[in-house]
TrEMBL record:
GO CC aspect terms: cytoplasm; microtubule; plasma membrane; presynapse
GO MF terms held by the record: GTP binding; GTPase activity; microtubule binding
Presence of keyword GTP-binding: yes
Name recorded for this polypeptide: dynamin GTPase
GO biological process: receptor internalization; synaptic vesicle budding from presynaptic endocytic zone membrane
Subcellular location: Cytoplasm
Domain GED: 492-583
Domain Dynamin-type G positions: 1-136
Pfam families: Dynamin_M (PF01031), Dynamin_N (PF00350), GED (PF02212), PH (PF00169)
Residue stretches making up the PH domain: 364-469
Biased composition (Pro residues): 604-617, 624-643, 651-676
Annotated region described as Disordered, given as residue ranges: 579-691
Alphabetically ordered keywords of this record: Cytoplasm, Endocytosis, GTP-binding, Hydrolase, Microtubule, Motor protein, Nucleotide-binding
């Protein structure tokens, strides 16, 4: 219980010890030294000076010559039990104390530095010094607390209980702040930028430019499985148009899925922005309900508009588009390739390579990021690397500095396939393999790459698609399904490449128009609704008083914060008015206090090691070196017992460490003949005034 107070640096320690006990074994001084080894906070107090044996005193201790402390000792004389029972006045007791010090021959020269009034003065001086030393640090701490509170109190400044228009002001402020926060989260600006994870506009941007293109490419590359078009059933132009329309219709699914993903992110963004409305639960619920209903209304209009774009693409197949390869040009290319090829398969493959080379993109970096490379434990185990995907290769490095390259894998003839998660595994895994059954990395036919989330895996797959590495399910059909008729094969390849070319144009158009349509019909429309119409909807939704009713927790928190804010401001004002030009005393120099033991408190009965008596017998003896006296004095922690001539020789002797070489009565003494044997007179113990 004591330690929890005296361990604080701002606590002064009064080590109180009676004058008729062994000061060297004082428990108070032992504990004080543990928490204040430098002695800067410890003041020694010696009580019961009037109960010492006649002819003994504590002069050397009070002068800080014997058993010194850095801040020295102060002697006091308190009321005895008899004085307390007799209701002796405190003023009379202090007068008697002063008379004692002035009349005592050993203390009269330092009477001005003894007594309870001097102890009060000393403590006041130490308190003044402490306040003066800690004021600058305290002022800085309060100022920093004030600055941190001002940001939170700012939102409460308009909420004055005595203001009749408080709720109206609060409603206007909340709605305006909600609109500003939503716009900042969508635009990714201001203090709404989240550095921990993607949110708001960043996630919507990823949907537009990674997730949606990934879904489109999956549908787009499905046309590579078109086979078996027979010339007897369709002419080339009719077959081309039928296949193109079938593929365009398949684009509806990823477009609608994109809208659903954007709506989900919008609703999550709304909920994040309404966190600041937590002070008013009813207002928060109504705001979320109104804006969510509005987004759901815009969802239908946006989907109708996107489906209209698909229908527009279906209504007319523009074969005169400047980016379309055309029948005549493609037929010439295929005929030339077939003339210079040895067989049909090589000719078709050569034609595909030509078309692919024409569409090839430069060797630019497509994506960078951390992935876990899964390898068996026998071959090194799983490890995380920094991967860099370009248009021609996949490289991985030790870290993002890209100085130590581990491997570079060309993308030729590579495919992707999904891998099932293992038991208790939280990673999402996909594999890369070579279609020609060659080793991909060292002696491995495939490598497995792991992502932390499904979203990351889909994003990486979309990046691989951009680099020309497609999923396994998009492989071309087996060669035995091709017709061996060169003319029929040529017509099939013609239609295939025409569809490829035209769907690429449609894909490009949809990728461009989808984000624009969603931004215009949904996101920008939601911004305008919040700024212009949300307040009117809130007013019409119910009673304003119930709408702006604070939660009990929030009201209590606001009151406590405002109270703390004003208290800190008042404290800073008080500190500013304090004059630091107070009279202060310098810190005393260090003293040798090694005499204070650092062990646990001593038992009650421990005889002290005596030392040769000084010129003036001290009140308390400590363990000092020297030969033992002929008449050692035992030390006991029991209450002192008055000593009288002829007392029981088997009774416990009194504990008077200040007596020079005394033994209890009844024990043969080796004192030299003629030495006086003065009796010890001790008054009953009295409680300390400080206690």
């Amino acid at each position: 219980m004591i330690m929890q107070f005296i361990t604080r640096e701002s606590c002064l320690i009064l080590a109180v010890t009676p004058a008729n006990t062994d000061l060297a074994n004082s428990d108070a001084l032992k504990v004080a030294k543990e928490v204040d080894p430098q002695g800067l906070r410890t003041i020694g107090v010696i009580t019961k000076l009037d109960l010492m044996d006649e002819g003994t005193d504590a002069r050397d201790i009070l002068e800080n010559k014997l058993l010194p402390l850095r801040r020295g000792y102060i002697g006091v004389v308190n009321r005895s039990q008899k004085d307390i029972d007799g209701r002796k006045d405190i003023r009379a007791a202090m007068a008697a104390e002063r008379k004692f010090f002035l009349s005592h021959p050993s203390y009269r020269h330092m009477a001005e530095r003894m007594g309870t009034p001097h102890l009060q003065k000393t403590l006041n001086q130490q308190l003044t010094n402490h306040i003066r030393d800690t004021l600058p640090g305290l002022r800085s701490k309060l100022q920093s607390q004030l600055l941190s509170l001002e940001k939170e109190v700012e939102e409460y400044k308009n909420f004055r209980p005595d203001d009749p228009t408080r709720k109206t002001k609060a409603l206007l402020q909340m709605v305006q702040q909600f609109g500003v926060d939503f716009e900042k989260r969508i635009e990714g600006s201001g203090d709404q930028v989240d550095t921990a994870e993607l949110s708001g506009g960043a996630r919507i941007n990823r949907i537009f430019h990674e997730r949606f293109p990934f879904e489109l490419l999956i549908k787009f590359h499905a046309i590579k499985n078109v086979h078996g078009v027979r010339t007897g059933l369709f002419t080339p132009d009719l077959a081309f148009e039928a296949i193109v329309k079938k593929q365009i219709i398949k684009l509806k699914e990823p477009c609608l899925k994109c809208i659903d993903l954007v709506i989900q992110e919008l609703i999550n963004t709304f909920r994040q922005c309404t966190n600041k409305l937590g002070s008013y639960p009813r207002l928060r619920e109504e705001t979320e309900r109104i804006v969510t209903n509005y987004v759901r209304e815009r969802e239908g209009k946006t989907k109708d508009q996107v489906l209209l774009l698909i229908d527009i693409e279906l209504s007319y197949i523009n074969t005169n588009h400047e980016d379309f390869i055309g029948f005549a040009k493609l037929t010439q290319i295929i005929i030339l390739l077939l003339c210079y090829s040895n067989n049909t398969d090589n000719g078709v493959q050569s034609q595909r390579n030509i078309v692919n080379k024409k569409r090839a993109i430069p060797n630019q970096v497509i994506r960078k990021g951390w992935l876990t490379l899964h390898i068996s434990i026998m071959k090194g185990g799983s490890k995380e690397y920094w991967f860099v995907l370009s248009a021609e290769s996949l490289s991985w490095y030790k870290d993002e500095e890209e100085k130590e390259k581990k491997y570079m894998l060309p993308l030729d003839n590579l495919k992707l396939r999904d891998v099932e998660k293992g038991f208790m595994s939280t990673k999402h895994i996909f594999a890369i393999f070579n279609t020609e059954q060659r080793n991909v990395y060292k002696d491995l036919r495939q490598i497995e790459l792991a992502c932390n989330t499904q979203e990351d895996m889909d994003s990486w797959k979309a990046s691989f698609l951009r680099a020309g590495v497609y999923p396994e399910k998009d492989q071309a059909a087996p060669a035995d399904t091709f017709s061996m008729d060169p003319q029929l094969e040529r017509q099939v390849e013609t239609i295939r490449n025409l569809v490829d070319s035209y769907i690429g144009i449609v894909n490009k158009t949809i990728r461009d128009l989808m984000p624009k349509t969603i931004m215009h019909l949904m996101i920008n429309s939601a911004k305008d609704f919040i700024h212009s119409e949300l307040l009117a909807y809130l007013y019409s939704s119910g009673d304003q008083n119930s709408l702006m009713e604070e939660s009990a927790d929030q009201a209590q928190r606001r009151d406590e914060m405002l109270r703390m804010y004003h208290a800190i401001k008042e404290a800073l004002g008080i500190i500013g008015d304090i004059s630091t030009s107070t009279v202060s005393t310098p810190v005393p120099p260090p003293v040798n206090d090694t005499w204070i033991p650092e062990t646990s408190p001593t038992p009650q009965h421990r005889p002290p090691i005596s030392a040769p008596p000084p010129s003036r017998p001290p009140a308390v003896r400590g363990p000092t070196p020297g030969p033992p006296l002929l008449n050692p004095t035992p030390s006991f922690a029991a209450p002192p017992i008055p000593s009288r001539p002829g007392q029981d020789p088997f009774s416990a002797p009194p504990q008077i460490p200040s007596r020079p070489g005394r033994i209890p009565p009844g024990i043969p003494s080796r004192r030299p003949p003629g030495a006086p044997n003065r009796p010890t007179i001790i008054r009953p113990a009295e409680p300390s005034l400080l206690d």
